[in-house]
Design a protein that fits this description.
about 220 residues; mainly alpha; 11 helices
C-alpha cells in the first residue's frame, strides 16, 4: 500500500517501466525529428504533443488511483480529456502528412478519406465509442477487475485515451481530411459527452457511498 498522499510521497514513488519509457522517448524523438524537417511547423503544436509525453511519463497518481476514489476520477479525467486534448492539438497526423515524401502523401490522403477511417471519425461513432468506454468501465464489474489486474488497468487507460482522441478530433475540428463540423454541432457533441461523464461519476460516487455504509 502506498504512503499517505503527499507531494513527497508522489514524487518519491514516481517510476516508469523501462519498455514504456523507451516507447515514449522514441515517440518524442520521432516527433521532434519530423517537426524539424517541416518548415514553419508551429512550436505550439510541438509543446502540446510533448505535454502528452510528460503526462504519460509522470503518471505519479497511478499507485493512489486504486485506493482513493477522488484520485481515481482525476486520473480518468486526465486520460480521457486532458491527454487526448493535448494529443489532438499536437496534430501528429498533420505532421506525418507534412513530413512524408511526395510518394507517400497520396497514399496517406487516400487512407484518410477511406470509408473505414471516415466511419471511425464520424461524430456518432465517436460519441458511441466514448459512451461505451465510460459506461462500460464505470457501471460494470470491469472497474473492479481493472483494479486487481495491472494488464487490464493498462488496457483501460488505452481505451480512455483512444475514446477521448476520437471525440476531441471532431469537437476541435483538428482532424485532417474530414469536413469541419458546424460550431453548434460540436457544442452538442461536447455536451452529450459531458452528460455521459456526469452519469458515470454520480453512479461511482453512489456506489462508493453504498460500500462505505455496508462496511461500517
Amino acid at each position: 500500500m502506498p504512503d499517505p498522499l503527499t507531494w513527497h510521497a508522489v514524487l518519491a514513488g514516481w517510476w516508469v517501466p523501462l519498455p514504456g519509457l523507451a516507447v515514449l522517448t522514441t515517440t518524442a524523438v520521432g516527433y521532434l525529428w519530423c517537426a524539424r524537417r517541416v518548415r514553419g511547423w508551429p512550436v505550439g503544436h510541438t509543446a502540446w504533443f510533448l505535454a502528452v509525453i510528460a503526462f504519460a511519463i509522470a503518471d505519479v497518481l497511478n499507485g493512489y488511483s486504486r485506493i482513493l476514489f477522488a484520485v481515481h476520477m482525476v486520473q480518468h479525467l486526465v486520460l480521457i480529456v486532458v491527454a487526448p486534448l493535448c494529443l489532438v492539438l499536437g496534430s501528429p497526423l498533420r505532421l506525418v502528412h507534412a513530413c512524408a515524401g511526395e510518394r507517400a502523401r497520396p497514399w496517406l490522403r487516400r487512407f484518410g478519406r477511406s470509408r473505414p477511417v471516415r466511419s471511425a471519425v464520424h461524430p456518432l461513432t465517436a460519441l458511441a465509442v466514448y459512451t461505451v468506454v465510460v459506461v462500460g468501465t464505470h457501471l460494470t464489474p470491469f472497474q473492479q477487475s481493472a483494479l486487481l489486474l495491472p494488464e487490464l488497468h493498462r488496457l483501460e487507460e488505452l481505451m480512455y485515451l483512444a475514446a477521448g482522441v476520437l471525440l476531441l478530433l471532431r469537437v476541435t475540428g483538428n482532424e485532417p481530411g474530414a469536413p469541419r463540423l458546424p460550431a453548434l454541432l460540436r457544442l452538442v457533441l461536447l455536451f452529450a459527452a459531458m452528460v455521459v461523464d456526469a452519469i458515470a461519476m454520480l453512479s461511482g460516487l453512489a456506489s462508493e457511498e453504498a460500500s462505505r455504509r455496508r462496511y461500517r
